[in-house]
Amino acid sequence: xxxxxxxxxxxxxxxxxxxxxxxxxxxxxxALIDFVTESWGCETCDRILSMGSLxxxxxxxxxxxxxxxxxxxxxxxxAVHQFFSxxxxxxxxxxxxx
Length: 98
Fold this sequence. Notes:
The chain has 98 residues and is α/β, with parallel strands linked by helices.
């Protein structure tokens, strides 16, 4: 997941490999944290970009995470989610928030 505030971009990951690649190969500001339960290190964000991260969130944590994202966005801020879909089912149960 990436968060942005006034032109500063910070990456949050659960993967040590992504942390290493982002920092050492790409030169990004990346933190190894549980973005669901831990503080993101900022009070507000202009943008939240979620790329393939929601698949790693437990279904019972999704509502809380969405509330955390909503609360972190400045008025007029954007949240963009990119996620993977399975080809066998048009709407896999594991990807539907109830």
